[in-house]
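so i finally got all the pieces together for this one. its four components total, 320 residues if u count the protein bits. some of the lines might not be protein, just check the labels. i wanna see the whole assembly predicted at once instead of chain by chain like last time, that was a mess tbh
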Amino acid sequence: MKRPPSPHRPRTLAPIARVPGLDYGVLDELLGYSLRRAQVAMFLAFHAATRGVGVTPPRFTALVVIGANPGINQSVLGRVLGIARSGAMALADWFEARGWVERRRHLDDGRAWGLHLTPRGETLVAAMKRRVAAEDRRRAAVLGAGERRELLRLLNKLAG
Amino acid sequence: MKRPPSPHRPRTLAPIARVPGLDYGVLDELLGYSLRRAQVAMFLAFHAATRGVGVTPPRFTALVVIGANPGINQSVLGRVLGIARSGAMALADWFEARGWVERRRHLDDGRAWGLHLTPRGETLVAAMKRRVAAEDRRRAAVLGAGERRELLRLLNKLAG
DNA sequence: TATTGTTATACTCTATAACTATA
DNA sequence: TATAGTTATAGAGTATAACAATA
């Protein structure tokens, strides 16, 4: 059974290996490094939850934010994601091409578009949120409930 | 004062904004999302510590690992970083071009190269490790010492 | 003047695939 | 056959710069 000529996988699909017998030096004391490893681990959970739909973490973030803030414009969306306006454009195009999001003219600002989930988008995003949240909790099940809450608290404190 | 025509900044240089008044929906309950935000915040610390040298987090990881494991080969290095062999190649080329790392033939395996820091590389990496560790701690100073330890513990538990 | 959307363009990172030398 | 290194190529993500329309 040959794999089909699938072009590219979006990212790494394996956790960052902890190579046995190797000396990691100062890395083990850096929050930055541990954060990166934990993030890759959680990305696997995300990937398991969104398999095959082509929804990456930034796209998921965008969909959730559009759903929770109907009429948000592309510049603000870019700010939320920490990307440039041109990138937010590409995102909106991608969603629109799939019929998940539509652009409607702002009533009070002729420059801006408001982004809205379509009915189809609503359904899809609702299901996706459930799956992503479930997988996120499943992967974090190595932590106790108290540990999970504490981790969330510390991360948010750190992110400022 | 115009900025020089500097080509590209390697990544985002601002924290992911928390846009006031916006509803973040389910994102606030996801470890994955909080991890991402915390990671970006810590990347800023890293960037402050390595300003102008062109050393990105993967490059820093590679340098530390080569320094702590002299003679490591490129394939293993790739495994440590979670990237393909071809990417490890490019890394080694980049270091070698700067005279920080040299390739020496393995004695017992004619296929492999062993990677070693040059004296210049040793000096540079030692200084860089100090600065990165100091900035990492400085940025994490919003946490108490106990909180920092606890965060590290939870992250490592999560990363598996 | 500043901001929104838009387009064109460029760069970084990393993957895949094919090849060679060696094991 | 399997693995290390190498090279060529391609794609995703995102930045900058410029422009038109609107504020």
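The two ends of chain B are 49 Å apart (CA to CA).
The domain at 28-159 of chain B is CATH 1.10.10.10 (Arc Repressor Mutant, subunit A).
anyway lmk what u think
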